[in-house]
Amino acid sequence: VKVEHDKKAKKRKHEYEEDEDDEVLLSVLVWEEERYTDGSKWRFLEHKGPVFAPPYEPMPNKVRFYYDGKIMKLSAAAEEVATFFAKMLDHEYSTKDVFRKNFFKDWRKEMTSEEKAIITDLNKCNFSEMNDYFKAQSEARKQMSKEEKKKIKEENERLLQEYGFCIMDNHKERIGNFRTEPPGLFRGRGDHPKMGMLKRRIRPEDIIINCSKDSKQPKPPPGSKWKEVRHDNKVTWLASWTENIQGSIKYIMLNPSSRIKGEKDWQKYETARCLKKCVDRIRTQYRDDWKSKEMRIRQRAVALYFIDKLALRAGNEKEEGETADTVGCCSLRVEHIKLHPKINDQEFVVELDFLGKDSIRYYNKMPVEKRVFKNLQLFLENKQPEDDLFDRLNTSILNKHLQELMDGLTAKVFRTYNASITLQQQLKELTCPDDSIPAKILSYNRANRAVAILCNHQRAPPKTFEKSMQNLQTKIDEKEKQLSTARKQLKAAKADHKASHDEKSKKTVEVKRKAVQRIEEQLMKLQVQATDREENKQIALGTSKLNYLDPRISVAWCKKYGIPIEKIYNKTQREKFAWAIDMAEKDYEF
DNA sequence: AGACAGACTTGCTTTCACTATA
DNA sequence: TATAGTGAAAGCAAGTCTGTCT
Question: Is Isomerase among this UniProt entry's keywords (predicted)?
Fold first, then answer.
């Protein structure tokens, strides 16, 4: 694959050489010429460092804070943190006990000793004037004149041009996130024990800069210093800092359109295609292992079966009390699984119910093979609800085993493989060559949806869902009325023509016929749209499209059926998948 | 083997900005 | 010309997995 692609890339490179504007495209086409074998990620790296959050602007004097009904002027530090809470007054978070408790504790740390002595109860704090002020501000922002908006836009564009790009090796690349995260209150997902804690402001002194020795080093803002400047070309990040909630490191990295991200993405799908070649063998083996006399092997084999069949995540252990209580395959507990030897005419039914990544609920009830069922019964023996289902297994053991089965194989490769193979197979099954383009796109979305369901990619139904559905229905009703009017007119025109047989009436018939046809098409399009949207109410297609589906499958499908690629991928997605758009022909097979 | 740090991918929600419409 | 509705983009939290240290 590589050799063939290299040839093609060279050819295209030549074609594009004169076109200097097309730098981005060019850089995509020549990736393959710059791969390193020693684990280094680049030779040259130059950038301007991150953009920092703007400093705190104190509240105008007229905006007051009240404690226990009395006006109280806060110190700048305490006031800033108070505004973080004030901004969230309308959010459900601000009513949660844990959130309030964490916030109050961290807020008090920012107070002067006088403030600390007075402010002892969050319930006696009144932030409403601050809240009103921010609402007014956001209203004012919306009301800004065209010129003011334009000015802001230009300033943003200037910042993007200056800080949003870097030079990596021979190419100018877009940076993904070139700003540090602003201070605020931490919003964990699900039942997070740290929600409401203060996320502190990031200063230049917190930042580690990574760039090449021979590059022009970024300058810290006047009067400040970087924490460190290093030159590590074994990593891809440009800058990093340690965040104070979990103590984890945050990075500034390149945009998905960059060579370094694109190559990695491509590699990911190649690994998944590798799995395709040996998945039969692996399946045979884990089925065999269900009979092993060793408990650890049986557990490993059943877990792998779940990962393969149900597309579960690996499930690393997490530190208790530090994050929301969520699990994946290896960390499933007894309380997450129910076994039904017989239910509704089905035998050996397993019911899984747990909170996965981002505290999204996974619920599934499915029949499994008898051997799996019997094994699960065995694993559950003499255990408490909070005990691990797979007590002899963890992700490290599992991945070590997978590594032995195939080079580069880890648990998540199964998700990539099953997602991509499902898309390919569903597209084959659902696409009718004679369908209109909108109908074909509906088929595509349905194939995409099948994958999203497999991977349990959900979303909260949009707040405007019901209304937007109604709007669409209104449009459909109107279109139907239009159609019936147009049909009547066509009928009348036909009758007229039958009576007179003249040229003019013949033309009218043609015109009316065309009109009916056009309206029919428009109606169909609207109906397809309504179906699509309804089926998508709680399902998020984005994640699978961006992270799990080999883009070459979609590109090939578009080429095969003459669908413009813009209908499937928007501008950003086309940039991210430029490598695939360039590479895949209509006969590409995952 | 297990703990932990680090790097990178994945995932949902919120905000932004554009476009169609009144 | 303002507004509403929408898709795109931004934001950042939360996973996976590797490597190192003990």
Answer: yes
